[in-house]
Design brief:
It is a single chain. With 372 residues, the protein is α/β, with parallel strands linked by helices. The chain has 2 domains: 93 residues, no CATH class; 186 residues, 3-Layer(aba) Sandwich (Rossmann fold), CATH 3.40.50.410. Helices cover 27% and strands 26% of the residues. It is built from 8 helices and 16 strands. The strands form 4 sheets. The protein has a 6-stranded mixed sheet with strand order 9-8-7-10-11-12, with helices on both faces. The chain has a 4-stranded antiparallel sheet with strand order 6-13-3-15. It has a 4-stranded antiparallel sheet with strand order 5-4-14-16, with no helix packed on it.
Amino acid sequence: MKYGTLCLLFLLASSFGGTVSAQNKPPQKNEEDEVVRVETELVEVPVVVTDRTGKPVLNLKSNNFTVYEDGKAQEVSDFAATAAPFEVALLLDTSGSTRSDLTLIQRAAQSFIDSLRPGDRVSIIAFKSSVDGNRRTAAADLLIDLTDNRASLRSALERVSTSNGTPYYDGLIEIVEKVFRMPPKEEFRGRRALVALTDGVDSTSASGFDEAREGLEAAGIVCYFIQVDTRPFFEEGLLGPCEGATRFSAAQIRRYYRSFGSGSKVERTSDFCQLGDFERLAISKKLYEIADLEMNSIAKRSGGKVFPAGDISEARSAFRSVATEIGTKYSLGYYSSNGRRDGSFRKIRVELRGLPTGAQVRAREGYTAPVN
């Protein structure tokens, strides 16, 4: 969510509140009008409206929407129709099973960029391998900052490489801290999106999911995920002799054991070679379940969506669906009537007015209030 400042100017009138006449003396140069500044945060709410058949409803006005925060109606002070441009951070997971499909990823991403509208701006983030001493690591790689220059974006896609790990959470934080580090310009307020092509299974990040989620929510970024099913490929490599098998990272094993809770008496090991095939498959299943829950949680709370893809070859179709939705999104903005800066989570509900029965709305579900 972008934080804005609402300035209310109150000019001193006469003590009787009457109309100022021509006989009134103009104020002296050393007199100043009283300026009262009331600071609050603009809450931005991306919204998609569909009819009973699922087709986007276009050409709506601000008076077609009512926004509630914690059950209390709010005054909509900002409204952007579907024609307004978007800023999109495109995150491409080029690790694991996707490494052999790099060309397909590049083509699908290019098709997505081509399907966006003139004026939409895109940034591209991928993963890369780097060397830290004698150890190869994976890192998030910001290939190009936000731009509407299609030739520059095409050139950046050609520089996408592969990695030997999945710093997925670090990539999400990179988007918050670098791509969307500055407040948006007026035409992009409430119109920033993450579009991620990934299986969501992190292996090497220095940061965690909670940190990434909190950053995305605070920035008001609507999140879309093209969830690629890499589990069959990954599990095929897990089985068999320890020496040649695909191994879990230490972070993945810790994530698996944490899912049992601190009081669990499940026997734990950090040594992959001590795991039998059954245990390896159990860990894999849990890691993919966690990834699925995390992606759906972020998407739902932000007003976005998860688009499943069986493999990379299906990604192009999913990208088209994302581009269509971005092009049919409204943006609402309001200044909360709750001025407390207490860090509490505020629930948002959007209702429709004057639309046929069966129309549905999908919007951001809430935000965390700032603290002093």
